[in-house]
Amino acid sequence: VQQISGMLTELFQRVRLEKPGQVDPRAAEFTLSLLAAMYDRSGTGYITTRSAAAALIALSGDTLLAKYRAFFQFYAVPDGKAALITRSALRSLLTDLNQIPAIVGESCTLSCVEIATHSCFHGVLSSAIVEEKFLSWLRSEPAVLLWLPTCYRLLATEMVSHHARCR
């Protein structure tokens, strides 16, 4: 938690310099509190960096494709020239990401993660998949992660204005 706190403080200080007046001075504190509520419920003082990174990526303002690629990079394992994501790595990713809706009472059961993992690896004979297969599966908007593209769409439409008058 201490290391993540330092990283968040540095991150938000940089953003505050780039965009003065747009970042709450307590942003690092609030973000750390959220991460601790999601990943350190028992108060051990330990949050895995990968879990924290997954949450920060999911909650970032980046495009869905960029988020999906970043998830792959954080959870994939190197295999010679290519990186692959295994079933256990996918389970870890989905479990980590499901802590985000769980914090607002929209949790998913462990069986949801298993069903999603099975659907991603449907028809795959090997123990791991390449990035393109992973991205293709995510683009199909699996139910376990439906909240992610929904939040992205809400954020994307926030600034849309229509020049029509209602009667």
Automatic annotation (TrEMBL):
InterPro entries: EF-hand-dom_pair (IPR011992), EF-hand_dom_typ2 (IPR015154), KCMF1/Dystrophin (IPR050774). GO terms for cellular component: plasma membrane; synapse. Transmembrane segments: none annotated. Signal peptide: none annotated. Residues 65-154 form the EF-hand domain. One of its GO terms (biological process) is synaptic signaling. Pfam families: EF-hand_3. It comes from the Eukaryota. This is DYTN protein. The gene is Dytn.
